[in-house]
Write a structure and sequence with these properties.
It is built from five helices and eleven strands, in the order E-E-E-H-E-E-H-E-H-E-E-H-E-E-H-E. The protein has a five-stranded antiparallel sheet, sandwiched between helices. Strands 9-10-8-11 form a four-stranded antiparallel sheet. The radius of gyration is 23 Å and the shape is elongated. A hairpin with a 5-residue loop joins strand 4 and strand 5. The protein has 201 residues and is of the alpha+beta class.
Length: 201
Amino acid sequence: MFDDTYKTIAAPAEGLYKEKGSKFLAFAYPVRTIDEVKAHLERLRKDYFDARHHCYAYILGPRKDAFRANDDGEPSGTGGRPIHGQLLSADLTDTLIVVVRYFGGILLGASGLANAYKTAARDAIDHAQIIEKTIDCRYRLGFAYETMNDVMRILKDYDLKPENQNYNLDCTLEVSVRQSLSVRFYDNVAELRTVKIDILS
């Protein structure tokens, strides 16, 4: 059986690391889109306009197929990559971590920098509530009113809640089904030959 779950964070969280006068403020956010990532970055750059660097990394999608790490002017691989490494280590996706650095006047060196960004990112993750979500398939069902009881019985069997319902002479509803159950659900609905089932996602 393939894995149809993934981990993300439930709400924003913060972390902090200090080294030789430099302060590394870490901010973790649950995100779903690049636009959300950009909005958080833009706001942090305004709120902490006097900081030296805003390094970040994010991973998006249940399959973790979209990701980026950005050093924001730090030596290559010392900012974004360690943050990205902590996201991978915690097995998180749909998550953005930004680490804002205030320079303390003493150079930390490449290894010191990488460790600082890594530790700050880890602290934010440690302060976050990590939750598990399921990868779902979404369907729209169309059926005659007389078929309502049969449709609702199947939804009850799978413990599903209908959404966007429209119960007139011709009824429609939408439902999200855990991916590992989706084929069986589809087949069960298809057995009700009067029900039209469309795959939305």
